[in-house]
Design goal:
The structure is a homodimer.
Chain A (H helix, E strand, L loop, with lengths): L2 E3 L2 E2 L3 E3 L2 H10 L7 E5 L5 E8 L6 E8 L8 E6 L5 H14 L3 E6 L11 H13 L7 E2 L3 E2 H7 L5 E5 L11 E2 H6 L5 E6 L7 H9 L3 E4 L7 H15 L8
Parallel strand pairs in A: 1-4, 7-8, 7-13, 8-9, 8-10, 11-13, 11-14, 12-14
Antiparallel strand pairs in A: 2-3, 3-6, 4-5, 5-6
Helix pairs in contact in A: 2-3, 2-7
Chain lengths: 246, 246
């Protein structure tokens, strides 16, 4: 099944933008009368019939709406410091979207080499990965902010987990993510992953003061983007019963 | 800590090859008398003193040997069909090495688009990832073989898991990897991940006949390389107590 995306949905029909129309009509050679599946980016899949196969502006009528298509039973916000190599961050964003994430927040730490991070490419990667992995809800890609700002703004009602390597806090004093989830009453989760140079002592102290829990990812030394993906999978595996997709 | 690799280890000294010598002496400016950490690729780390800082052929004397450095408490062979895009396979190999894997076997399925797969680049990626993630044992990169050959050659004493999407076997009839590990008496594990076009019915039937267990990776539709990495992490998280690294 191939999914298209539309942000122009009316009562019983929708328009595809130029990129999506071209892909639908020119590349996949869909014609009037063909069935197409379109997501709204907010969790709904529409099963439609193409009624205008204009390759710049295709239109389809909606036959059926499927809510919560390809969703997962948790709400996960991943705040991850940018890697030196942008490819590595983009790879994380693609993989996290395939597995299941709700928001991606690039955060700039005291030790981050990159202090500025553009998110426009990430939004395209997220859209492509959502369609490829048969989901209907686009993870939100937030504008970057500092680690300190993020620590202070993440809602205290969520399970807030910070993952760092600082050896002043030995592994025994941190919990595995699955253990933290097991003790949590909420499935609203924020996970913060530091930069290549780790968090500063000030950032760690602030996090602990604000009630963030320190977690570890086992014994392997992982790169930033690998650690971030390992964290997403720890959450994904903790909630085994997602919404089945067909 | 920076690790170097040597395949030329004598009783109490070792030689670095041209690449490693150049990195050690030219890039990192190590000089005679400096401490260097060298792995043998078989699980041992040597703490050494540099005694010849020749940038083409550096030599060090061994002060201490640390066995089983950065190992993990399982033996995992990942047999994964090549992806159309080689970059994606290489990403998987790098990430699996960081997390912990013992052998990587490119397998060619009936539905694989690629029928030939070269492994020389993978060996370089594995070496780089082993050093970066502070391990001393290089995962073995095997030459490619067909899925049928692999199914028949994997030792029946190991836990053999096949991961596929074929809807003729619904998710309820497959187990999660953690569940299969929980019922297993061995920590020798072989996991087989199919190509983009999935396994053929003949391959699946052969696997089940030979006693392979069908497993699933949850509800998300994952790309080949994402599925393979998700499988490695399912094993990694099942065995929480690896060997601590410092």
């Amino acid at each position: 099944m191939e999914l298209f995306y539309s942000s122009k949905i009316e009562d019983n029909s929708l328009l595809l933008d130029q990129d999506e129309s071209g892909h639908c009509v020119r590349v996949l050679r869909k014609r009037c009368g063909d069935t197409v599946s379109v997501i709204d980016g907010n969790g709904t899949l529409f099963r439609c019939t193409l009624v205008d196969d204009n390759p710049k502006s295709a239109r389809a009528v909606i036959n059926e709406a499927v809510n919560d298509f390809g969703t997962h039973p948790y709400n996960l916000q991943m705040a991850v410091c940018p890697t030196k190599n942008t490819d590595r961050y983009e790879w994380f964003v693609e993989k996290a979207t395939e597995i299941g994430v709700d928001a991606i927040v690039p955060v700039i730490g005291d030790h981050s080499e990159r202090k500025i991070f553009r998110t426009d490419r990430l939004k395209r990667i997220v859209l492509s990965a959502v369609k490829q992995s048969l989901k209907a809800k686009l993870p939100e890609v937030r504008e970057s902010l500092t680690v300190t700002e993020y620590l202070q703004s993440a809602p205290s009602s969520s399970l807030r987990l910070i993952c760092y390597c600082d050896s002043t806090l030995p592994k025994e004093k941190r919990t595995a993510i699955a253990e933290a989830l097991g003790k949590s009453k909420t499935n609203d989760i924020c996970i913060l992953i530091g930069p290549e140079g780790d968090f500063s002592t000030e950032e760690i102290n602030l996090a602990l003061t604000l009630g963030w829990q320190a977690v570890h990812l086992g014994d392997s030394r992982l790169r930033t983007e690998t650690a971030a993906l390992a964290a997403v999978l720890a959450v994904y595996y903790f909630y085994p019963d997602g919404t089945a997709i067909d």
